[in-house]
Amino acid sequence: MGFRGLYTAIVTPFTSDGDLDLAAFGRLIDLQLAAGVDGIVVTGSTGEGATTTTAEKEQLWSFAVERVNGRIPIIAGTGTNDTRGTVDLTARAAACGVQGALVVTPYYNKPTPDGQIAHYRAVADSTSLPVILYNVPGRTGTNMTPATQLAIARACPNVVATKEASANIEQMCEIMRDAPDHFCVLAGDDSLALPIIACGGVGVIAVISNYAPKRYGRLIHAALRGDLDTARAEQYRLMPFYSANFFESNPIPVKWIMHMLGHMQPTYRLPLVPPTQTTQQRLHDVFRDFVDA
């Protein structure tokens, strides 16, 4: 399966007691479907995958698969810093019926390039799911170099893409230039999707589309069809919102934004906590007249 277009890294809503809020989760999925996104990533970084339990992950994956009913792909965030744990989660995700696995570079351990290659080969060999690499040095402490990513892609036919969140466009261009035919680049930074698509990327896994799937979707789909005038115009309109998503650590702002817009409770899973009063006011100011249209 080739992944192309706009994939929303969906937030995970919790009740005021801290449990999964599946009713709200269903409404969020419906919002994405109505806006015409190309897919949804469940339990990624934005979905607080690091602090949801295995049982909760399985609930979320199964619920999402049932809710979309084959209309768009569901990609499960299954990556951990433990190869055996990642293999197990990926198998569980496949059993839930997802269409792909997003696997982050092992964090904390800081494996060498050889260790990274061995990790991804073990995961890819264990599953028939398409696998997306996830390179996010700001969270993992390690950058997965173009040479390493390309070695993994060449060794693993079911590793079909990378979510590149290094913010290094030169690195991404090197990957796109030398990638095998089955392997593509998805932007991992919302504000960089347009330049990455212009250089040969095929889409984005995004935060902003939690609340702006229509507006951001217009940008991505215009860029993919070569309508750069439309894409640029949307890019400039969305710039204040790109920044707002990172007033504090993601997903703190986006969950508060979704709360402000009436979609969910403002509940986080520790060690994440609600934004400060200063940040709440800044978000209120940015979103005072926001409409996704």
List the SSEs and their pairings.
Layout: E1 5-9, H1 22-35, E2 39-42, H2 54-68, E3 74-77, H3 83-95, E4 100-104, H4 113-125, E5 131-135, H5 137-140, H6 146-155, E6 159-164, H7 169-178, E7 184-187, H8 193-198, E8 203-206, H9 213-224, H10 228-244, H11 252-260, H12 277-286
Parallel strand pairs: 1-2, 1-8, 2-3, 3-4, 4-5, 5-6, 6-7, 7-8
Description:
This protein has 293 residues and is of the alpha/beta class. It has helices at residues 22-35, 54-68, 83-95, 113-125, 137-140, 146-155, 169-178, 193-198, 213-224, 228-244, 252-260, 277-286, and strands at residues 5-9, 39-42, 74-77, 100-104, 131-135, 159-164, 184-187, 203-206. An 8-stranded parallel beta barrel has the order 1-2-3-4-5-6-7-8, surrounded by 6 helices. The mean pLDDT is 97.
Total discrete domains: 1
- Provide the spatial order of strands within the biggest beta sheet: 1-2-3-4-5-6-7-8
Percent range for helical residues? Answer: 40-55%
Q: What proportion strand?
A: 5-15%
Please sum up the structure shown.
By secondary structure, this protein is an alpha/beta fold. It has helices at residues 22-35, 54-68, 83-95, 113-125, 137-140, 146-155, 169-178, 193-198, 213-224, 228-244, 252-260, 277-286, and strands at 5-9, 39-42, 74-77, 100-104, 131-135, 159-164, 184-187, 203-206. It is globular and about 50 Å long.
